[in-house]
Amino acid sequence: MNKKAFFIFKNKRSWLLGVLVTVALYSCVPTREIKEENPPLPENYKTAAENDSVNSAVIEWKEFFSDPYLNNLITKALENNQELNMTLQELQIAKNEVRVRKGEYLPSIGLKAGAGVEKSGKYTRAGAVEENLEVEGEEFPDPLPDYMIGLQAKWEVDIWNKLHNAKKAAVLRYLSTVEGRNFMVTNLVAEIANSYFELLALDNQLEIVKRNVDIQSNALRIVKLQKEAARVTELAVSKFQAEVLHTRSLQYEIQQKITETENRINFLVGRYPQHVERDALAFVDLVPKAINAGLPSQLLANRPDIKQAELDLAASKLDVKVARARFYPSLGISANIGYQAFNPDYLLDTPQSLLYSIAGDIAAPLINRNAIKAEYSSANAEQIKAVYNYEQTILNAYIEVSNQLSRITNLEKSYDLKKEEVEALNRSINISNDLFRSARADYMEVLLTQRDALESKFDLVETRMQQMNAMVNMYQALGGGWN
């Protein structure tokens, strides 16, 4: 066999050996099934009165809430709330991550310039050559300067879509952050509205207490007159006096709750404690707005937290592909072009000082495959976790809507009954007072009747507040408030 034939045979054998090694390495690449989501959404809400595609979530919060003071608070909160503004910075971070990932699969080009000096020993090969070398009639300089200027380019050919998938995953996570911000807006709008209605309810409870203090004070004066007339004892006077003091103490408890509620709203709005503008008298005429729940399937489009979980799931699937692509060889291309000379006068001489190079290389993981396997396994686990999170988010959304639908119905019935209770107890106060004056009722009956009436009025206001909160929470559960 001649040398040429042997060389060809040797190259073929080396090539075949490389192919066999590559096949052996990547035939054992672990394979895992990507878990698909299966959101079990019913076709309708069991507690809904009727199935209708009309959905209140599409109504903008400025139209949903008619109170100008409340709308003004929400507007200021969307501008000044610190937590919301921090989320906007997270959006910018996620956007920058997309730019980073995009830059990874584009060629990188850089400008390189340098200068140096080198002294070779006289009795070395390089020194001996330089000793007897002349350039254009000049002796070779010693020591030898070196000047260079040029362009460098590097590019990893994305043959397995590893870099493109990483960029797509970054885009999905940016969109997920956008939905996270929308979800925060929904929660912020609902929290301000609930606190505002609570504040109105406390104002009305305070007014009820003040009116009851007047009523009980008048009753106390009557009892004192009756004691002077020897119709009742000192015990009756003490009991009535204690009741007045108890009711007056409630006034300060409610005032403290008002202060705390105002400050909670101020915190959400992003300002220091101050009076919250409101129309307390408007609470009496408040009627919960009718809410259209629509269809359960509309939650997928309206709820920002569901869309966020869906985008996170899509990104995690791409992460699995990126992790798997790390098992495969990567192809890189590098190129250089520029000028190099020992004398600045010759630096731009073409083609004498021109230099260029281009090279390609294939690199495959060999020793650290266990680390890559671990990353691949973790990516699969994260993907499965994202599936469960997506399904749980949908389940939670459906249950929230179902609970609020039931709550709205039950609170409406409860309010009607409590309203009748208040009317009955108001009549009983007048009756008990008349009977007490005519000595046909005991003073304890009067006290208990007044206390029951006060508690029933408190409960009526509390129930109305719960109705307003249920309306707000239903709007939030459907995914309204962020658009």
TrEMBL record:
Keyword Membrane: yes
Transmembrane segments: none
UniProt feature coiled coil, ranges: 74-101
Superkingdom in the source lineage: Bacteria
InterPro entries the UniProt entry points to: MdtP/NodT-like, OMP_efflux
Keywords, sorted A to Z: Coiled coil, Lipoprotein, Membrane, Palmitate, Transmembrane, Transmembrane beta strand
Membrane topology: Lipid-anchor
Localization in the cell: Cell membrane
Family named by the database record: Belongs to the outer membrane factor (OMF) (TC 1.B.17) family.
Name this protein carries in UniProt: Efflux transporter outer membrane subunit
Source organism: Autumnicola tepida
